[in-house]
Amino acid sequence: MLKGSTLGFIGGGNMAEAIIKGLLAGGVAAADVMVAEPVAARREYLHGTYGIDVCADNGRVAAAADALVMAVKPQVFRGMVAALGPAGLDGKLLISIMAGITTADMEEVCGSAARVIRVMPNTPALVLEGASTLCRGRNATDDDLFFATGIFDLVGTTCVVEEKLMDAVTGVSGCGPAYVFLFMEALSDAGVKNGLPRDVATRLAAQTVLGAARLLLETGDHPGVLKEKVTSPGGSTIAGIASLERDAFRGAVMAAVDAATARSAELGKK
Length: 270
Ligand SMILES: NC(=O)C1=CN([C@@H]2O[C@H](COP(=O)(O)OP(=O)(O)OC[C@H]3O[C@@H](n4cnc5c(N)ncnc54)[C@H](OP(=O)(O)O)[C@@H]3O)[C@@H](O)[C@H]2O)C=CC1
Ligand SMILES: O=C(O)[C@@H]1CCC=N1
Fold this sequence. Notes:
NADP(+) binds at residues 10-15, 71-74. This protein is an alpha/beta fold. It folds into two domains: 7-161, NAD(P)-binding Rossmann-like Domain (Rossmann fold), CATH 3.40.50.720; 176-267, ProC C-terminal domain-like fold. Helix content is 55%, strand content 14%. The chain is built from twelve helices and eight strands. Helix 8 crosses helix 9 (198-219). Bound molecules: NADPH dihydro-nicotinamide-adenine-dinucleotide phosphate and (2S)-3,4-dihydro-2H-pyrrole-2-carboxylic acid. Residues 99, 170, 174-175 line the site of (2S)-3,4-dihydro-2H-pyrrole-2-carboxylic acid.
């Protein structure tokens, strides 16, 4: 898919690994992927697990790569570019997955001519079920957006939005897997509380979320319609739903997304 281009990652943490694992599973050659990562144990792990070139030198990866995925924390981004020297990024397509860092921030720090694509992926990319949303900076071309979309298409679904929506995207799908894991953990705990063995409870929780998600995507029905089909008059589901409503479940989810969206915007500030 990279068609002879080399994709470099600056930062080899959780999200970089999720994308790399997905890319390799999707047919990208290990020889076309490089990572710069400061932690020796992490470098050994990434090289040993995926057979990719991993080094400690951001400059070496920047020089060798045609496109660079900026996969460090937003808080270290400016210092990282200052240490590298923005000139080291000249001519490269810069693909940022950093929460809160705008394409204008990228252009300010990396050079006013920088070609920037901003992406908000999520960790299910690891199993090729990622949700990645992209927008482009003022210098990025149609080909750049096509190239970046092609990368993230390999690890799940993609969509393109206006940049002003990217913090909301972060609050929903970037952070969303963590909310769903919290929900599944609670569902599993509740099963154990009611006598189920842990392995059975966890499997039921996960398959229920997976099945419900597929039902929603494949039918295209409104979630409320699908909820109604589970809920028998005077039955057990409505007893559970009434309890969730008393505890303001939906309000709690909306407040969580609001908080994450606001925090994403803050992360970009100097
Ligand atoms: N995790 C997620 O679900 C998602 C994350 N993101 C974004 O992805 C980015 C990475 O997040 P995540 O993978 O979770 O974070 P991690 O901390 O797991 O990964 C960042 C990696 O970059 C390394 N690093 C630190 N400083 C430098 C440097 N100067 N040069 C090169 N590498 C460096 C870190 O090393 P060390 O540990 O020593 O600091 C770490 O290994 C963030 O900007 C985040 O907003 C976006 C969507 C989802
Ligand atoms: O927690 C974070 O800030 C990152 C961005 C989206 C998911 N993880």
